[in-house]
Amino acid sequence: MLSSLINFSLRNRVLILILAGVLCVWGALAARELPIDVLPDLTRPTVTILTEAPGLNPEEVELQVTAPIESALMGAIGVDRIRSTSGIGLSAIHIEFAWNADI
User: Fold this and answer.
1) Cβ-proximal residues to 75 (8 Å cutoff; 6+ apart), any chain
2) Chain centroid to CA 69: how far?
3) Burial, 79: exposed, middle or buried (Cβ in 10 Å; 0-12, 13-18, 19+)?
4) Fewer CB atoms inside 10 A, N or C side of the chain?
5) What is the pLDDT of residues 29-52, one digit of tens each?
6) What count of other Cβ atoms lies within 10 Å of the Cβ of residue 53?
7) What pLDDT shows up at residue 36?
8) CA-based nearest residue to 96, from 51, 47, 50
9) CA distance from start to end of the chain
10) Residue 66: half-sphere exposure toward Cβ, Cα within 13 Å
11) DSSP helix/strand/coil, 72
12) Residue 15 and residue 21: Cα distance in Å, rounded?
């Protein structure tokens, strides 16, 4: 069966080239009509809290600003993960929520 298909293709080269061209044009037209967002967004709902504490070193920012905010957010409904960083006079807290959580 495969050899007969190959023989038919070799005998009718022009027809095969025309069919291949038609399929390429049809595929290009179909690709243009695809939605732009083909892949779903896989990032969890996230909230970022930035706080300033002028004049404090990173250890003081951690103790006086970041830790109290983190402990207050630990009990929130739907929180999956809390990450934080403290720098000179600045605290950044990233809270990731569950997919179905109401932020």
Assistant:
1) none
2) 27
3) middle
4) N
5) 998 887 776 667 677 888 999 999
6) 18
7) 72
8) 47
9) 62
10) 23
11) helix
12) 10
The span from the CA of 72 to the CA of 82, in Å, is: 11
- What is the DSSP annotation of 3-64? HHHHHHHHHTHHHHHHHHHHHHHHHHHHHHTS-S--SPP-PPPEEEEEEE-TT--HHHHIII
- CA distance linking residue 52 with residue 69, whole number of Å: 13
Query: 89 and 56 in contact (C-beta within 8 Å)?
Result: yes
DSSP secondary structure string for all residues of 90-101? EEEEEEEEPTT-
Q: Which two tokens stand for residue 53?
A: 């504490």
Q: Which helix (H) or strand (E) holds 87?
A: strand 79-87
**What pTM was estimated for this model as a whole?**
0.58
- 55/28 Cα distance (integer angstroms): 60
Residue located via tokens 């934080």: 84
